[in-house]
Design goal:
- The chain is of the alpha/beta class and 284 residues long.
- Helices cover 43% and strands 15% of the residues.
- A 6-stranded parallel beta sheet has the order 1-11-8-7-5-6. A 3-stranded parallel beta sheet has the order 3-2-4, with helices on both faces.
- α2 packs across α10 and α6 packs across α7.
- 43% of the residues are buried.
- Bound molecules: NADP nicotinamide-adenine-dinucleotide phosphate (NAP).
- The site of NADP nicotinamide-adenine-dinucleotide phosphate has 26 residues, from α10.
- Keywords: Amino-acid biosynthesis, Histidine biosynthesis, Hydrolase, Methionine biosynthesis, Multifunctional enzyme, NADP, One-carbon metabolism, Oxidoreductase, Purine biosynthesis.
- InterPro entries: Aminoacid_DH-like_N_sf (IPR046346), NAD(P)-bd_dom_sf (IPR036291), THF_DH/CycHdrlase (IPR000672), THF_DH/CycHdrlase_cat_dom (IPR020630), THF_DH/CycHdrlase_CS (IPR020867), THF_DH/CycHdrlase_NAD-bd_dom (IPR020631).
- Homodimer.
Length: 284
């Protein structure tokens, strides 16, 4: 049976150490890290994410600024708010909860965030920095996954790593981080000719497809580290991942559960990025 990678526990440890560092930082500089979260519209899942982010800020000793805007908000109005926050010294990180309503260009809004406050690391300037390995912030989900892999003690260098899914927020940056850690990386997607064959070669398998339980036990190398990013619903409407946990946990060496795996890490990494942004701002 695979060892369960406990994302909840690891996330709590990281948030605990950020809390301690933040208290020291505030005492030394008088600066309290601040995160502004903008939510446009009333998507229930987004409302939960925003609430959790606010709670996490309070827990680690940050200031949190919440902007709840109606669905009818125009792109110009949203960019105006972002621009104001770009120039607000108490705000070190700006996060615009995605998805945005269809009449607003996500690309335009992301590009309006100052790269130094872009704690999601979605701005093209930060994406480019991730490519070259010279970055201030890493996108939260892949950064959290790197912590989860580190917690297993399995060395990435020289290992065959397979990432299933090539989204800009998970798959692509994930592959880049594994490459920076000297893994030999294969990226798979919906047009991959033989997904099973590719997955079977993986010492480290990261799955981010949004397709419930699509990775089965016969697709996993015995002993592999399996990271499940998916947040899906099964046939009974129950939360599950992209990996068939019950089957795959009999084959894998280490596996993340859903919930309680990757999800909690994303918020911990957001706190880390906000703290980093505050430190950079204070040193200028
Ligand atoms: P996305 O933008 O929809 O991308 C999905 C990717 O999976 C695409 O690259 C797609 O290939 C690939 N794919 C879909 N079906 C496939 C198949 N049958 N075989 C191989 N590849 C396939 O998704 P995302 O934003 O990366 O999110 C993926 C999942 O992670 C979702 O369940 C999401 O809710 C979850 N998520 C969780 C967190 C967290 O904090 N826990 C954070 C972000 C996302 P093509 O490019 O060829 O279409």
């Amino acid at each position: 049976m695979a060892e369960i990678i406990d994302g909840k526990k690891i996330s709590a440890q990281i948030r605990g150490s950020i809390k301690e560092e933040t208290a020291r930082f505030i005492a030394e500089t008088g600066v309290t890290p601040g995160l502004a979260v903008i939510l446009v519209g009333s998507d229930p899942a987004s409302q939960i994410y925003v609430r959790n982010k606010k709670k996490a800020c309070e827990e680690v000793g940050f200031k949190s600024f919440e902007y709840l805007m109606p669905e009818s908000t125009t792109e110009e109005e949203l960019k105006e708010l972002v621009n104001k926050l770009n120039h607000t010294s108490e705000v070190h990180g700006i996060l615009c909860q995605l998805p945005l309503p269809k009449h607003i260009s996500e690309k335009a809004v992301i590009e309006s965030i100052s790269p130094m406050k872009d704690v999601d690391a979605f701005h093209p300037a930060n994406v480019g920095r991730i490519m070259t390995g010279d970055y201030n912030f890493l996108p939260c989900t892949p950064a959290g996954i790197m912590e989860l892999i580190k917690s297993t003690g399995v060395e990435i260098a020289g290992k065959k790593c397979v990432v299933v899914g090539r989204s800009n927020i998970v798959g692509k940056p994930m592959a880049m981080l594994l490459l920076h850690a000297n893994g030999t990386v294969t990226m798979c997607h919906s047009k991959t000719a033989d997904l099973k064959k590719e997955c079977l070669e993986a010492d480290i398998l990261v799955v981010a497809t949004g397709k419930a339980k699509m990775i089965k036990a016969d697709m996993v190398k015995p002993g592999a580290v399996v990271i499940d990013v998916g947040m899906d619903r099964d046939e009974n409407g129950k939360l599950c991942g992209d990996v068939d946990f019950d089957e795959v946990s009999k084959v894998a060496g280490y596996i993340t559960p859903v919930p309680g795996g990757v999800g909690p890490m994303t918020i911990a990494m957001l706190m880390r990025n906000t703290y980093t942004a505050a430190k950079i701002a204070a040193s200028r």
